[in-house]
C-alpha cells in the first residue's frame, strides 16, 4: 500500500482521537519511523507530506541521510551509545532517548555550540527490556541537566509495554503526561518540557487522547519491508 494512503488513514485516526480529547490535531506531530524500510520508501513518505523521520540506529540514519539530507527533520529515537553521538549530532533535530548523565555530557560537548533538543526517556512501565529512567528518577535527573548549557529538555518520551490492554496503555501515557506537567511546573529555563513523545502503530490513538504531541509510527505508516 502507498504511504500516502496509509497516511490518510492515520490522519483520520489522529483527528478522531484529538476530537475525543478536545485537542487540536495540528498539535500532533507524526514521525514516520523508517528503521524497517528502504531509503526509497522513506522518500515516498516525504512525498506524501511527512516532514519528520525517525531512526533508532546511527547506521540507518546515516544511510538515509546521505540521500535525503536535511529534507526531513530527523529524530533519533533509539538507545544512543555515547561513542555514536558524534555521528548524528549535526544531523538530528531531536534526540528522544536521553537517559543518563554521561550521554548528556557527550551531547553537550559535541553540540557545536548550538542547543540540542532532547527528550528524556522514561520507562514508565518499568519493563526490564526497556531503557529509560523510572518516573521517580526522572525529575532529579532533569534538574541535573541544567549544568549542560547546550541541552534543552524539550519533553519526555516513553515506550508503552507490549500489550493490547487499553487500560494499561492509557495509564502509562497518563503517567508520562503527569510527569511532564510536574517538570513544567518547576519552570526551569533549560527544560520547557512541552513535548510528549508517545504512541506507536498499535497505540497512537490512546496516546493522543492522553496528550501525545509526537507519535512515532513505523509499521502502520511505512510498513515493515517497503
Ligand atoms: C520501532 C520504533 C517505533 C515504531 O514502531 P511501530 O510499532 O512499527 O510503529 C517507535 N518508537 C521506537 C522507539 C521504536 O524503536
UniProtKB/TrEMBL annotation:
Alanine racemase N-terminal domain span: 10-224
Q: In its keyword annotation, does this UniProt entry include Ubl conjugation?
A: no
SUPFAM superfamilies documented for this protein: PLP-binding barrel (SSF51419)
InterPro entries given in the database record: Ala_racemase_N (IPR001608), PLP-binding_barrel (IPR029066), PyrdxlP_homeostasis (IPR011078)
What CDD domains has UniProt attached to this entry?
PLPDE_III_YBL036c_like
Q: Which residues carry this modification: N6-(pyridoxal phosphate)lysine?
A: 35
Does the keyword field hold Nucleus?
no
Job of this protein:
Pyridoxal 5'-phosphate (PLP)-binding protein, which is involved in PLP homeostasis.
Q: Which HAMAP family match?
A: PLP_homeostasis
Q: Provide the protein name.
A: Pyridoxal phosphate homeostasis protein
Amino acid at each position: 500500500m502507498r504511504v500516502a494512503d496509509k497516511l490518510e488513514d492515520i490522519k483520520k485516526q489522529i483527528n478522531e482521537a484529538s476530537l475525543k480529547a478536545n485537542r487540536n490535531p495540528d498539535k500532533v506531530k507524526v514521525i514516520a519511523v523508517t528503521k524497517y524500510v528502504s531509503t526509497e520508501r522513506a522518500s515516498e513518505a516525504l512525498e506524501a507530506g511527512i516532514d519528520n523521520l525517525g531512526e533508532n540506529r546511527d547506521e540507518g540514519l546515516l544511510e538515509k541521510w546521505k540521500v535525503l539530507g536535511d529534507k526531513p527533520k530527523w529524530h533519533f529515537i533509539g538507545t544512543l551509545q555515547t561513542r555514536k553521538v558524534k555521528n548524528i549530532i549535526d544531523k538530528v533535530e531531536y534526540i528522544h532517548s536521553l537517559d543518563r548523565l554521561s550521554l548528556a555530557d557527550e551531547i553537550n560537548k559535541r553540540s557545536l555550540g548550538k542547543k540540542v533538543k532532547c527528550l528524556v526517556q522514561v520507562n514508565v512501565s518499568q519493563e526490564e527490556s526497556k531503557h529509560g529512567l523510572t518516573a521517580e528518577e526522572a525529575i532529579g535527573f532533569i534538574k541535573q541537566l541544567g549544568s549542560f548549557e547546550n541541552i534543552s529538555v524539550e519533553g519526555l518520551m516513553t515506550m508503552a509495554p507490549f500489550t493490547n490492554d487499553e487500560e494499561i496503555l492509557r495509564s502509562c501515557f497518563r503517567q508520562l503526561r503527569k510527569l511532564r506537567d510536574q517538570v513544567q511546573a518547576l519552570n526551569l529555563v533549560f527544560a520547557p518540557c512541552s513535548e510528549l513523545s508517545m504512541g506507536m502503530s498499535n497505540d497512537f490513538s490512546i496516546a493522543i487522547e492522553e496528550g501525545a504531541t509526537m507519535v512515532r509510527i513505523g509499521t502502520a505508516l511505512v510498513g515493515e519491508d517497503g
